[in-house]
Amino acid sequence: MTGARVPRVIFAASTVLYVCVGTLLTAGRGYLGGDALSRVAATQSALFSRDPHLSAIGFVFTPLTSLAQLPFVAFEPFSADITRWGLSGVLMTSLFMAGAVVMVWGIGGDRGAPQWLRIVITAVFALNPMVVFYGGNGMSEALFLFCLCWAARRLMRWVRTDGVHDLVAAGIALGLGYLTRYDALAPALAAALLVFGLSYHRRRAADHRFTGAAMDLVLVTAPVALAFVVWAATSWLITGQAFQQFTSQYGNTAILSQSGAGTGSPIVAMQYSLGATLILAPLLPLLVPITGALGIRRRDWQVPVPMLLFGSVLAFQMLSYAMGSTFAFLRFYIAAIPLAAILALLIAPAHGLPPTKRAGRYADIVVAEPAPRTRSLRPLVGAGLAAVLLIATLPVTVLGMNNQLMAVQEYSLEAVLFPNPDNVSAKYNDEVRIAATFRTERRLAAYLDALDLPRGAVVMDTVYGFAVLVASEKPDRFVIPSDRDFVRVLNRPLDRGAKYILAVPNTGRGTSDAVNRRYPSMYENGAQIATLELEIPNDGAGQPDWRLYRVIGS
Amino acid sequence: MSAELPGLATPQEREFALRTAVQGLRENDPMASASVAFLPWQRNTVLAAVATVLVCGVFWPLKTLTVLVAVCTVGYIAVLVDRVLIFTRGMARDAILTVSDEQALALTPDELPPYTILVPAYGEPEVVGDLIAALNGLDYPRDRMQALLLLEEDDAPTIDAAHAAGIGTAGSEHITIVLVPAADPRTKPKACNYGLHAATGDIVTIYDAEDIPDPLQLRRVVAAFQSLPRSVVCVQAKLAFHNARQNLLTAWFTMDYGLWFGFLLPGLMRSAAPIPLGGTSNHFRRNVLIDIGAWDPYNVTEDADLGVRIAARGYSTAVIDSTTLEEANPDPINWIRQRSRWYKGYLQSWLVHARRPVQLWRKIGPVSFLRFTLILAGTPIIACLNLLFWFVTLTWIFGQPWLIEKLFPAAVYFPALIALVLGNAATVYMNLVACRENDRPDLLWACLVSPAYWLLMAVAATKGCWQLVRNPSYWEKTFHGLGTSKESAE
Q1: Which A residues, 162 through 181, put their C-beta within 8 Å of a C-beta on chain B?
Q2: What is the pLDDT of residue B477?
Q3: Who's near A116: CB < 8 A, 6+ residues apart?
Q4: Among residues 408-447 of chain A, which lie with CB inside 8 Å of chain B?
């Protein structure tokens, strides 16, 4: 196989793997992630709701996870399964996670690492159970990892080549990363410090030392700054709030207080964060000091790049969890996995210069390499050992992902993958309930579909209702908050042709439900405008019992 | 003095030279001359288009405006995408032609052909003296270098200054003063055409009197011509400014030139597209230059026009990594005047070469044809429209009037928004990248505030377009003035 074809084969193979696993879990076993499904719902609203418009994608979460699904959701009219089972998300994340795998492969190539080491490390990364799961479940992790790995790869090149192409690509990767997850501000800051520091150091004998370093800093941060400003400005122009994540009734800040998820003491939070990192990358405590020491001895500026980029993401998560502003989710520490893989690659010394279209003035000068025989074998043995250990510690990740305390969002995979009706433990029962999440909503959607209602007949909020929306054959039957006449319909449902109101209990996250905010007693008694038609108890975890109210007079 | 020069020795020769300088292109190839701005069919097409828009505007005002906005948006995106594409091509290290110092100095004396340098100057007594130093700085055998200082016959101050500086006397005997007979149009291309009659070099180049060329530039060009195919008949050197730090305007101008000559022109060269030449430091094979009609004295950007004509005749231009330093225009009013002339000239050149669109399309190919349109017509028109669309954006942000919402249905709105945000950002970013690669990080602030520079560009473009549309008689007047001078010359 020629050099250019290998990445394509890796990309295709990983995509197929993730698509298969993702489809098996979703369409095959009915196991859907809430966040993934709500992004599908947002994308669907932009295209096929009663009032299709792009800003229906919403401004609470950054838009890329939804936007990247647009081309796939566009095929929804041909098969509602695309959204019902979140398949658009599965396909999208598979492509991006496969992209991340190619980046890890490429980092090895840029560094001139031996072929066997590249193959082993790339495979260990690609087959990590956490990577496989998030490669096919439609969550933002795959995009985010892709952006991080891309940025790391190009910055590691820039360290050697001083090439402006690398700086620009790293900046764009970080900018897209910001449009995927707000966490990307941390690696952007880390990249800014690294680029400015190294650039300033390099220019010690040059004119314009400060502005030269500042120019590099601006080039690498400008895309992130643009993404930040444009996203905040668009949100402000359309919704009146620049940072809905923090200020909206639907944002994380609100969800945290609604769901009463307190972390307790910062020490406990820190313990969780360290535990999560170790579950995903048990070798990090070994790899960081070893590569750090090697980096100092070799004066290898490539080493700090992954440490800073991925490390800053981990540090940011630890800090925000300790401050009680985020959740105890294992997936928030997924950056530890590529970090370990890349550090293992860095144990082997660099050979040659990475490819560059335009090496900068401060590019490394490659000295003639010593003959292979005189080359020390010790680093290669070390890298090989690290690779073996990476494989050997994969079971730690598997066990961790099955732990109810550490992996709230993953441990139910056991019940999905290995159903065992004889298991009666409390944990297994919980797993079954989680695995059944959204089953009720699908049945509810099927029931409403069977009523064959006209457009705009059912009013609901998408806080919980998104799951009904994606499962429905005709999403335009629902009046949802992104419709520009939502408030008018909610105020006078009868006059505006609405027949039903879907209500959830006015507690917990239900308090943010627009129906409850307008009619606080809707769920209890129909708020004197509707009569109870049907109550739908929920057999999924964390989902409310629904009540379908019929508008009086309709 | 002129009298000693071969092509301009006798009064008859001088009269012939003047006539061909002014009328040559117009008589031999009227379709290539900008002496008439619009051909009848071009004018009729424009008028018909305007009439159609007006009629539609009366009957369906909103729809017409929406369609116009959509067309503009498509134009914006096309120009933008093409610009970024050209830039990325120009970013490759080997996009620009590089001749190392060693290669340039390795040329033996008998490999160096006779070289003619034309230096047109008009009303510039203060800079003409610097010329000696600049030309003496060139590393080229004196006996093969012919420098012609082209002065207007009635421009006494500059002529006196040139004599006072000792041009033509010992130490600068390779420089000859050529007095161009006073006749309209008083343009640089006319003076160059006139001087070309006395040129003896195999290669001809133009410098301005205040230029400071790279000392090895002529040798580099000779080496380049040696290595390039015969179809390459012009080598354009990079232009830059020595007074970048004088004020913000000169900083912007330096940034602008850095992007244009350092990356966009090399990108155009890689794309095999017509290259609008810069005003100076373009080196031609003399026989081909004469053969294709030399400079058009009626075109206000004769350089850009010649660049396209070179491509239209099946030849090509290379861009070489050798810098000529010029003085940037530090005065905003003056700058706007100069830039509006360029924009007008770009449109003029586009109109000239689009007179036989099918023929040009066949000759240079569809991609190059589109690219030539996007560069020559797109640049000034977009700069003009910017003014309008910035205004629309501001109105929308502050007032959100219903009219603007109606004008931008989703299919227009999102492309327009992308063009606005990514277009502006990409342009600033390209300037930043270019400054970094040109080793001018000190222009960082100028790059970051460059949107204010576009405001100046927009004003200049509006002025240029207005002049072209509103005042086509401007050229007719020139033409009449010329007629009388021709008569008097006879």
Answers
A1: 164-165, 168
A2: 30
A3: none
A4: none
Q: What residues does A503 pair with on adjacent strands?
A: A547
- The owner of tokens 């990247």 is A68
At A52 the pLDDT is 85
Name the minimum distance, in Å, from the CA of A208 to any CA of chain B.
6
Chain-chain contact of A357 with B92 (C-beta, under 8 angstroms): yes
Contact B91 A211 (CB under 8 A): no
State the average pLDDT over residues A298-324: 93
The span from the CA of B78 to the CA of B160, in Å, is 51
- In which residue are the tokens 């293992």 written? A344
Res. B1 pLDDT band, cuts 50 70 90: very low
Token duo for residue B266: 């090399």
Tell me how far apart the alpha carbons of residues A142 and A311 are, in angstroms, rounded to a whole number: 17
Distance of CA B369 to the CA centre of its chain: 18
Report the distance separating Cα B290 and Cα B482, nearest Å: 22
Q: What pLDDT is attached to residue A432?
A: 87
Q: Answer yes or no: is pLDDT of B391 > 50.
A: yes
- pLDDT tens profile B104-138: 999 999 999 999 999 998 888 888 878 888 888 89
DSSP A422-478: T---HHHHHHHHHHTTTHHHHHHHHHHHHHTPPTT-EE--HHHHHHHHHH-S-GGGE
Q: What is the pTM of this model?
A: 0.91
Size of the A and B interface in Cβ pairs below 8 Å: 49
Q: What is the DSSP letter of B260?
A: I
- DSSP-derived 3-state class of residue A536: strand
pLDDT value of residue A405: 87
- CA nearest neighbour of B220 among B284, B139, B153: B139
Q: Between these two residues, A246 and B474, which has the higher pLDDT value?
A: A246
Helix residue spans in B147-299 (DSSP H):
156-164, 188-196, 217-227, 248-259, 265-270, 286-291
